[in-house]
Amino acid sequence: MQSEELQPEEFGQAAQAVIAALQGQGPAEAAAAMADAGLFGICADEAQGGLGLPLAFAMPVVRVAGQMQLSYPLPEQIPASKALQGTEAGGQLLRGEKSLCVVMAAQAAGDWSGVARNGLQADYVLVQTDAGFALYDKAALRCQAEEMLDPEVPQLWVSTTGATPLLTLDAEQSQAFCADIKLLWAEYVNGLCAGALERTADYLQARVQFGRPLSAKQAVRHHLARMRLLLEASSAQAWRAQRADGCDAPREADSALAAALSQGAWVLEKAIHLHGGMGFTWELGLHRSLREHKKLDACLGAGALMRAVGADFIDRCEVTQ
Question: What PANTHER family does the record point to (predicted)?
Answer without folding.
Answer: ACYL-COA DEHYDROGENASE, ACYL-COA DEHYDROGENASE FADE28
